[in-house]
Write a structure and sequence with these properties.
Layout lengths: L13 E10 L3 H12 L4 E4 L16 E2 L8 H13 L21 H8 L2 E2 L2 H14 L3 E3 L3 E8 L2 E9 L2 E12 L5 H6 L3 E3 L10 E9 L26 E5 L4 E8 L7 H24 L5 E6 L9 E3 L7 H5 L7 E5 L19 H4 L4 E4 L11 E3 L8 H7 L2 H20 L9 H10 L6
Length: 440
C-alpha cells in the first residue's frame, strides 16, 4: 500500500430500497424522477444542495433557454406551476432556424433574438418541492454520491454521504443526473471531459444579485483590500446584466481556468469567483457611479461542463450542425452552440456566432445509455456527447426532455422485465409523444 493511501472497511446500512434511484436533483433529475413516479414506480431523488433545481435554483440561472414548448408534460407542469405564482415571463417561441439568421455578438441583442424565458427562482424551489410531494418521491438533500457497488456491469447500490453518515441505496434502475456523472465515475464506467486535445472544460459562471437604489447613500462600498481595483471596463472579466424582478438585476461573470471535477480546483473556483464579484461591484459603483446595492450571491458556482459519459453513442457537433435525426430519438434540441473560450475570462467564443446556430436536431436514446452498464442511464449535461454538442444540449429545456425520457425508459424496462438495451424504442418514443414530448 502506498504511503499516501489508506484502506478502510466499514459496514454501511442499506437504508433505502426503491425501484428507481435518481442521483442529482437538477431539472433533468426532477424530470426523470417525476416521469418514473407517474408510471407507478417507487422513486428516490438525491441532491447535494439544500433544495432541488441545480443551476436553475442554487446556481442562480433563472431563465429557460431554447424552446419552452413541446418538451414534455413534466416541463409543462413546471411552467404551469410557475404561472400560478405569476413568476415566469410569457411564452415566446425560439426563433426558427434560418441560414440567413445571424446571431448577434452583442448580449442585449442576442437576448432579444433568442428570448430566454425568465422566471423567479425562489418560487421554482417551492414548485419542485410540491412536485416531489405530489408524486410521493422520497427526497434526500444535503446528500452526495461517494461510491457505487457494481457486479458484472450492474449497479447494485450507491453509497451516499449525508448528515446521518454513510448509507447505501439499492435500486433496480439508477439514473445519473449529477451533472458530473458521479455515479458513472464511481462505478468505474468510462467518462470524458473537456475538449478532446487537452481536457480543458468550458468556463464556469457565477451569478450574484444586486438592487438598484434611488440614491447611493445606503450603498455598501467595497473596501480596497477586498477588490483589485480597475479603472477600465475592459479589465473586468466578462460580465452580463441579467433581469431579476423589479429594481433588481442578476450579474453573471465568467470564471475560467478551473476543473469542476477536481476538489481543490472547484474550491479555488468558488473563492476566485467571489473575489471577481467584488471587483465587478467595485468598478460599477466607483467608476460608473451605479447605485447598486449588493443583495446576495448564488449558493454555488454555475458549472457548464463536468464529466460526460462514454455512452453507446457520442453525439457530435457535426450531428447537431446537420440537424441529424435518429431512429432512437428521445429528445430534441434547438439552442445554439454556446461555448465560451476556456482560455480567457473575456467574451470570446470557441465558434463564430454566425456559425453557432443549429437546425433542430435529435438526441438518441443511445446517448443516455452508459457503455458496458446494465441498469444505469444518464440525463442532463453529463450525457454522451462531445464538448460542443453538449454546449447546445445542456440548457434546461433540453435536459428536462432528456430526464423525462430517462425516467420513462427506466420505468418501461421494469414494467416489461427487460434490459435497458432490449427496450422497445418505438414503445419508448410512443410514450414520450403521449406525454407531450415533440421529437420531430
Amino acid at each position: 500500500m502506498s504511503e499516501n493511501c489508506i484502506t478502510f472497511s466499514k459496514e454501511i446500512p442499506v437504508r433505502y430500497s426503491v425501484d428507481i434511484a435518481v442521483l442529482g436533483g437538477g431539472i433533468a433529475g426532477i424530470s426523470a424522477a417525476c416521469a418514473a413516479a407517474k408510471m407507478g414506480k417507487k422513486v428516490l431523488i438525491v441532491d447535494k444542495m439544500n433544495c432541488l433545481g441545480g443551476n436553475s435554483t442554487s446556481g442562480g440561472v433563472a431563465s429557460f433557454c431554447g424552446e419552452t414548448s413541446g418538451q414534455g408534460e413534466i416541463f409543462d407542469e413546471i411552467i404551469h406551476r410557475l404561472e400560478g405564482f405569476g413568476a415566469i415571463a410569457e411564452y415566446n417561441p425560439y426563433p426558427k432556424y434560418s441560414k440567413e439568421l445571424k446571431l448577434s455578438h452583442n448580449h442585449e441583442e442576442l437576448f432579444e433574438q433568442t428570448k430566454p424565458r425568465i422566471f423567479d427562482l425562489q418560487f421554482l424551489i417551492s414548485v419542485f418541492d410540491k412536485m416531489i410531494s405530489t408524486y410521493n418521491i422520497e427526497c434526500l438533500l444535503h446528500t452526495r454520491v461517494v461510491d457505487a457497488i457494481t457486479t458484472e456491469g450492474s449497479v447494485k447500490q450507491v453509497v451516499l454521504a449525508g448528515q446521518s453518515g454513510l448509507e447505501a441505496c439499492s435500486a433496480d434502475m439508477f439514473i445519473d443526473c449529477t451533472g458530473e456523472a458521479d455515479v458513472v465515475f464511481h462505478a468505474g464506467f468510462g467518462t470524458m471531459k473537456g475538449r478532446e486535445e487537452d481536457n480543458i472544460q468550458l468556463p464556469m459562471s457565477l451569478m450574484f444579485f444586486i438592487r438598484n437604489l434611488n440614491d447611493n447613500k445606503d450603498i455598501t462600498l467595497i473596501p480596497e483590500e477586498y477588490a483589485e481595483r480597475v479603472h477600465n471596463k475592459d479589465e473586468l472579466p466578462m460580465n452580463t446584466l441579467w433581469p431579476n424582478g423589479p429594481s433588481g438585476n442578476a450579474i453573471k461573470i465568467k470564471i475560467n481556468g478551473f476543473d469542476s471535477t477536481d476538489t481543490v480546483s472547484l474550491s479555488k473556483a468558488e473563492i476566485e469567483s467571489r473575489k471577481k464579484m467584488l471587483q465587478v461591484i467595485d468598478y460599477y459603483q466607483r467608476v460608473e457611479k451605479r447605485n447598486w446595492y449588493f443583495d446576495h450571491i448564488s449558493p454555488m458556482i454555475g458549472i457548464r461542463e463536468g464529466r460526460r459519459v462514454i455512452g453507446d453513442y457520442i453525439l457530435k457537433v457535426s450531428d447537431i450542425q446537420a440537424g441529424r435525426k435518429f431512429k432512437d430519438a428521445i429528445a430534441k434540441g434547438v439552442y445554439f452552440i454556446d461555448a465560451l473560450s476556456p482560455l480567457s475570462d473575456k467574451r470570446e467564443m470557441l465558434m463564430k456566432m454566425e456559425d453557432s446556430q443549429v437546425p433542430p436536431y435529435q438526441i438518441p436514446y443511445r446517448s443516455l445509455l452508459v457503455k458496458d452498464a446494465v441498469n444505469l442511464l444518464v440525463a442532463g449535461r453529463c450525457f454522451s456527447a462531445d464538448q460542443l454538442a453538449m454546449s447546445s444540449a445542456r440548457v434546461f429545456t433540453t435536459t428536462s426532455m432528456m430526464g423525462q425520457a430517462a425516467g420513462i425508459a427506466a420505468a418501461l424496462a421494469l414494467q416489461n422485465n427487460c434490459t435497458l438495451r432490449n427496450l422497445n424504442v418505438s414503445e419508448l418514443q410512443k410514450e414520450i409523444t403521449k406525454k407531450k414530448g415533440v421529437l420531430d
